[in-house]
TrEMBL record:
Its main location: membrane. Keywords: Lysosome, Membrane, Transmembrane, Transmembrane helix, Transport. Residues 1-10 have a biased composition (Basic and acidic residues). It holds the Pfam family MFS_1. GO terms for molecular function: transmembrane transporter activity. It comes from the Eukaryota. It is found in: Lysosome membrane. Residues 1-28 are annotated as: Disordered. It is a multi-pass membrane protein. The chain crosses the membrane at residues 39-56, 68-89, 167-191, 222-248, 260-280, 287-306, 312-336, 348-368, 374-397. PANTHER family: MAJOR FACILITATOR SUPERFAMILY DOMAIN-CONTAINING PROTEIN 1. Homodimer. Interacts with lysosomal protein GLMP (via lumenal domain); the interaction starts while both proteins are still in the endoplasmic reticulum and is required for stabilization of MFSD1 in lysosomes but has no direct effect on its targeting to lysosomes or transporter activity. This is Lysosomal dipeptide transporter MFSD1.
């Protein structure tokens, strides 16, 4: 069996999912770019993973469904751009349907992107990979924030008006990125299926299975991770959505200055995320980094709320802590749940995050209208405090989990240990 697998690895031209192999054909060793065991090939795959969600502003999902599901979700994103047609035709109801479909595809595509990352890079590189994916997502957000206004104005000059036609054409231009995401999904699906044939992954049962019944089996650590995710992100995205007017009213910034400082979180996270992800990979101790990121974010919000210091300081601090948390938090899901529950766990985490963002965004708007920005910042600080409490609890719960066997010092669990030098199964002596 081992010889057969090695021959499959060495004879790329003879690889197929069924049918006899041709023993008379000459052996052609794979290049580093084509061999899924090699780092160069995985970096090539990572490029398509990163760009998979660039255009993005229950059942059973096994190995086949990971590839097919990603393509379907990317198609939803493309179809969701019917919003542009609704704008062209001045049909608001069609725009609402388009955004609904786009949301279904975009959020599901993010889950598929996470499961791809864990499948290809589970282990010492995972924090860096999540950092790179975040970097590309934030790059897309930054491009959208700074380019689409110019695109709209340029189209308005060409069309000669600023009505619904101009909006529709601008959205159709932006829709090109959705087509690019679909192309990445197709290429990524082919590469993933090819790797499964070469490495014989299907026989190992490495595919993710998404079942809602898995929720009852989630460990307590995972629920704490969910709380951290919601408590933290609701203090980031809604704040950025309301931040421009905040900087104009409190700090007397001009609109261009307010836009610039409001986008600094995304601008910093684009280059910082992969660097911080690499650092977490080398050092490990994800839960410690999460606590540091949440605490630093709390300091940044308190500076914005209770001082008149230059807000560039607080926003820069917010950008760094946001990048660090994303690199350290999302990979922790793969450390605390079995591989067959990863799709369910990431999907549930994404759903809870978006539900929290939707509810908190409405609450933030109401607080702003009735109480003002000071109360709004206190509210965001309270949300971050909830995330900090959950992070501290996660640290101690995970520590006690490692101490359970009665030995001293207690064995280090994946959330505390450096994953760079010691594989997960050596740390815990069993599969996740």
């Amino acid at each position: 069996m081992a010889e057969e697998r090695q021959k499959l690895l060495d004879e790329e031209g003879d690889i197929s999912s069924s049918g006899p192999r041709n023993e008379s054909r000459p052996v052609k060793p794979m290049s580093a770019l084509c061999d899924p065991r090699r780092l160069l090939h995985r970096i090539f795959v990572l490029l398509f993973m990163c760009f998979l969600g660039f255009g993005e502003q229950g059942g059973s999902i096994k190995t086949l469904w990971r590839e097919l599901g990603t393509i379907i979700f990317a198609l939803f994103v493309c179809v969701g751009q019917v919003v542009a047609v609704g704008a062209l035709l001045d049909l608001f109801w069609l725009m609402e349907i388009g955004r609904f479909v786009f949301g279904i595809g975009g959020e599901s595509l993010a889950v598929a992107q996470n499961t791809y990352a864990v499948n290809w890079f589970n282990g010492k590189e995972l924090n860096l990979v999540f950092g790179l994916q975040l970097s590309m997502a934030r790059l897309g957000s930054t491009v959208n924030m700074n380019i689409m206004g110019s695109v709209y104005n340029r189209v308005a000059d060409l069309v000669g008006s600023t009505g619904h036609t101009t909006l529709g054409v601008s959205l159709m231009i932006a829709g090109v990125t959705c087509i690019f995401s679909l192309v990445c999904a197709l290429v990524l699906g082919y590469l993933d299926k090819r790797a499964e044939r070469i490495l014989n992954k299907e026989q190992g049962g490495t595919g993710e299975v998404i079942k809602l019944t898995d929720v009852k089996d989630f460990p307590f650590q995972l629920w704490l991770i969910f709380i951290i995710c919601v408590g933290y992100y609701v203090a980031i995205f809604p704040f950025i959505g309301l931040g421009q007017v905040f900087f104009i009213e409190k700090f007397n910034f001009s609109p261009p200055e307010a836009r610039a400082i409001n986008s600094i979180v995304y601008i910093i996270s684009a280059p910082a995320s992969p660097v911080l992800g690499f650092m977490v990979d080398r050092i490990g101790k994800n839960v410690i980094w999460v606590m540091c990121a949440v605490f630093t974010t709390l300091i940044a919000h308190m500076m914005l709320a209770f001082t008149f210091w230059n807000p560039w300081i607080a926003m820069s601090l917010l950008g760094l802590s946001y990048s660090l948390l994303a690199c350290a938090l999302w990979p922790m899901v793969a450390f605390v749940v079995p591989e067959h529950q990863l799709g369910t766990a990431y999907g549930f985490m994404q759903s809870i995050q978006n539900l929290g963002l939707a509810l908190i965004s409405m609450a933030a708007g109401s607080i702003l209208d009735n109480k003002g920005y000071l109360f709004l910042e206190v509210f965001f600080s309270a949300c971050v405090c909830l995330a900090l409490i959950a992070a501290v609890m996660l640290y101690f719960v995970d520590y006690l989990r490692g101490k359970r066997d009665g030995s001293w010092p207690p064995p280090l669990t994946p959330l505390h240990h450096s994953l760079w030098s010691v594989p997960y199964d050596i740390i815990t002596n069993h599969a996740p």
